[in-house]
Amino acid sequence: MNKNLRWKLLSIVGIVALAGWSVYPPEEKVRLGLDLKGGVHMVLRVQTDDALRIETETSLERAREILEVRSIGVGAMTMESPTRFRIEGVSPAQDAEFRAITDEQLLVVYRRESSAGGRYAFEMRPNMAVSLREESVRQALQTIERRVNELGVNEPIVAPHGVGGDQILVQLPGVSDVARAKEIIRSTALLELKLVEQGPAISRETLLQANGGRLPDGMEVVPGTDDTLTPGAAPQSVFYLVRRVAAITGRDLRTARSTLDEYNQPAVSFLLNGDGARKFGDITSQNIGRQLAIILDGRVYSAPRIESRITDEGRITGYFSQEEAADLGLVLRSGALPASLTYLEERRVGPTLGADSVRAGILASVTGLLLVAFFMLVYYKLAGINAILSVALNLLILLGVMAYLNATMTLPGIAGFILTIGMGIDSNVLIFERIKEELASAKNVRLAVAAGFDRVFLTILDTHVASLIAAAFLFQFGTGPIRGFATTLFFGLLSNVFTAVFVSRTLFETILARRRVARLSI
């Protein structure tokens, strides 16, 4: 045996051993998708009106603050719909200044309509409404994807769904605690830090008594829990009067994680980004001695007193369990959802059904391989053994590559697996037929085998490159099942070029190198 052939055999043995190591044990190394492992399939709708409402509320409160700073007196300021608000009572003497301010602050997003008596209505421009709806869906999709990834789910699918543009498909393979996953996905996790104007009080009415039972403009009442109680005591519901516009929001967060407070109770600490730290430093330095409410999803979790200037970190305490604190840190890290979600569809795939799919896929693959092996042995005689070994090694290498890259095997992926068997046999048929033609031209066996492989190589390469391009497009533009098929097909094509050309030729050369062969069984 010559040195070149020895290196070829060692290379094949090394690659096969590496593939076997990557895939063993298969129940641990091969990752299964939702259809094979079981899990949950959900379709959610983003309530995009929420995003429009938040934008309109923010614009209205910003206008209120600017008008107060400029000493422009107005009457009622009310929001009429998610895209429309009204300002009344603008005096004729200040009308020009009012128009100038709203031109600068609002007219990029809103159209202004005026009527008698200093009344103005602001309607969100249609193109801005469409843009905000699209942005809210895009942001919700990214936020859900980050949350699902932090749950540790293998190969989740989070993708746009349907034709309305406001639906999101979520598939979570292998998830057993579905209720927890759903709660984490749909939790809005809107964090706000607001200065406390009054409170805590035991009821909303008590809180508003000082204002004659009327809610002051630019303020809101937020429920919460009294955090001054001794740990272990029963929590007491209270109410706070806070400013409607938040000093700091979840958008200013850099990160958040679960921790322990001074009483060794679960809490969540957070760090602010540069802009948030600057704003936090300003607000705390200017309001030493006042309470700062830490509000999450419209509820006050704690309202500590500002003792000194604080810049970039804070802590949320409350009546958390360890798991609740960890989940809260997760959703805060992933960012707040821009709008609430509703579930349109939920299907659970049981592990038993997934196991049945795996068994059916294995049965189909083995049956296909046996039928192909029978055909190759009958039609190509002993040379068919070469093709069978080539295809078997192709499948082993394919599984090894997928296990090493943590690619997920799905039911369509099994279809790609079976197609790989056909592609492998097709390549060997091309080679064998070419060898038979070379033998018919009176060439000896060695020359016929060499010529057969050399002249078919470009044909095999051309067909595989074309198929690889098709698989790449399927992966790029396809959804979950299509991408599973494309992944298996892509790696199967790559391994097939190696086994059909390199492995199959090396097996022929090994047999011919050991003895003088006058006639090839093909």
What does this structure look like?
There is one protein chain. The chain is of the alpha+beta class. It has helices spanning 3-23, 26-29, 34-37, 48-69, 95-105, 126-150, 178-186, 204-208, 274-285, 322-334, 351-380, 383-404, 411-440, 445-477, 480-514; strands spanning 31-32, 39-46, 77-81, 84-87, 110-115, 119-124, 157-161, 167-173, 191-201, 219-225, 237-243, 248-249, 253-260, 266-272, 292-296, 299-302, 313-316, 341-349, 408-409. The chain folds into three domains: 3-36 and 351-514, Multidrug efflux transporter AcrB transmembrane domain (Multidrug efflux transporter AcrB transmembrane fold), CATH 1.20.1640.10; 48-127, Alpha-Beta Plaits, CATH 3.30.70; 193-334, Gyrase A, domain 2 (2-Layer Sandwich), CATH 3.30.1360. It contains 15 helices and 19 strands. Strand 7 (157-161) and strand 8 (167-173) form a beta hairpin. Helix 11 runs antiparallel to helix 12 (383-404). It is elongated and about 110 Å long. The mean pLDDT is 80.
The tally of domains stands at 3
Main sheet properties: 6 strands, antiparallel
CATH class of the largest domain: Mainly Alpha
- Distance separating the two termini: 23 Å
Helix vs. strand class? alpha+beta
List keywords for this structure.
4-stranded antiparallel sheet; 21% strand; Multidrug efflux transporter AcrB transmembrane fold; 522 residues; 6-stranded antiparallel sheet; alpha+beta; 3 domains; Alpha-Beta Plaits; Gyrase A, domain 2
